[in-house]
Amino acid sequence: MIDLPFLSDICRTTPSKIVLLVADGLGGAPHPDTGKSELETANLPNLDALAGESSCGLTTPVMTGITPGSGPGHMALFGYDPIKYLMGRGVLEALGIDVELGPGDVSSRGNFCTLDGDGLLVDRRAGRIPTAESAPLVELLDQIEVPGVSLSVYPVQDYRFVLVIRGEGLDDGVSETDPQVVGEAPLVPHALNESSRKAAEVVKAFAAAAQEVLGGRDRANMVLLRGFSKLPHLPDFGESYSLNPGAVAAYPMYRGLAKLVGMNVIPTGRSFDDELDTLEKNFDKHDFFFLHYKPADAAGEDGDFEAKVKCLEELDERIPRLRGLGPDVLVVAGDHATPAIMAGHSWHPVPVMINSDLTKGDGSPAFHERSCSTGSLGRLPATELMLLAMAHAGKLVKYGP
Q: pLDDT tens for residues 304-353?
C-alpha cells in the first residue's frame, strides 16, 4: 500500500519492467441460462494460457459488498486506500482532457441524457451519442451564465462533458443529479455541508438552464451531473515506489487519474490497438506502465452479455502482442466487476493474475472467476497488488533488520 511505513526505504530502482493491464469492468456474474460468467463463456486461449503460467486469484477493490466506481477501483490497484483517498470523478475527467484547475475550482462530470414527456429518464446516456453530435450541445451549455461565478463546459467524449465552476466561496459537497436508474426524474442537487451551499445553488441554476436549452430535442434533451470535486493532494506514485511510471489510456477519465497520481500520461489514439502502438514506441522510456482497456466495461453497463464476451475475446487476441514486448512482470487485473446481467458495476471480486519468471508452474487452468478463486493468490485487497508486482520485479528489499 502507498501508506506502508518506510515504503520508500524498501523500494529500489531496477531495469525490470512492469506492465499493469487494467481491463475495465473485467469481472462478471453467471448468466441465468448457462450458469457461466462472461469470462467463462468467452473463448480466451491466450489469457487462459497466460493464467497457466501465472499466479492467479481474486481482488476486492474496496471492501466486501461495496460496489466501487472506476476511480476507487483504479486507485486501489495503484496501491492507494480508496476509502482514505476518495475523490469525485469530475476532477479526473477534467484533468484527462487537460483542463487547468485552480485550488478553488469545482468540477463535475456530466452526461447528456434523454427524458420522456413526463420528465422521467429513459436513457441515462442519451443513446451514447457520438462526439460529433454532442460537441455542438456542449457549445450551447458553455453559453449558460450564473451570477457570481464563471462556468465552463468542455467536451470529453461521446455523451460526456465536464462542468467547471470557478469563483469565491465554493466547495464540492454537492449531491449528484443522476438517480442511477431510468424511470425517475433527475435529482435536485443540494448541499451536503454548509460550505457547499453556494455551489449547490449554482448547480441547480445550471441544470435548470440546461433543460431550457436542450428541452426541445428528441434525445440528449437534459444533463446529469455527478462527481463534484476539487483538486486533491495525493502521494506521488513514482516517488512512493521509486518508479518512472507511464500511462497509456485512450479514455480521458483514466488519463486524468494517472496524471493525478503523478504518472507520465503518454498521448495515444482512441482504440486499444492505438494504445499498444504507443506502448511499443515508448517501452524503453519507463519501468512501469499502466495500460487501460475500456470496451468490456461499456458492454457490461449496457447489459449486453454477448457484447461483453466479444470484447473480452478481442482483448484476448491482443495478448500475444503485449507479451511480445517481454515485460518482466505482466499483471492482468480489473478495477471492478461489471456483470452484464446487472447492467452496472457490482461488488463481485475480480480475477487477477501476475506473470513473471517466478510464477511458472503456479498457474490456474483458465482465467475466469471460478478458476481464479482457487489460485495461489487467494482473495486479496486490490491495494496489495502493487507490492506483489514490485516483489516479482525484484524492486523490493527486505523490510526491517
A: 999 999 999 999 999 999 999 999 999 999 999 999 999 999 999 999 99
Strand partners, 174: 191
- What tens digit of pLDDT does each residue of 363-398 get? 899 999 999 999 999 999 999 999 999 999 999 999
Residue 196 per-residue DSSP state: G
Domains of the chain by start residue, with CATH: 7-85+234-392 (3.40.720.10), 92-229 (3.30.70)
Is 87 buried (19+), middle (13-18) or exposed (0-12) by CB count in 10 A?
Answer: buried
DSSP characters over 366-393:
SSSHHHHTTSTTEEEEGGGHHHHHHHHT
Tell if the pTM clears 0.90, that is, is over it. Answer: no
Q: What cell was used for 245? A: 511510471
Give the 3-state secondary structure of residue 346: strand
Are 78 and 70 in contact by the 8 Å Cβ rule? The answer is no
Asked if residue 129 lies in contact with residue 112, where contact means CB atoms within 8 angstroms, the answer is: yes
Label residue 355 left, alpha or beta by phi (over 0 means left) and psi (-120 to 50 means alpha).
Answer: beta
Residues 392 and 367 sit within 8 Å (Cβ to Cβ): no
Nearest to 67 by CA among 386, 344, 370, 385: 344
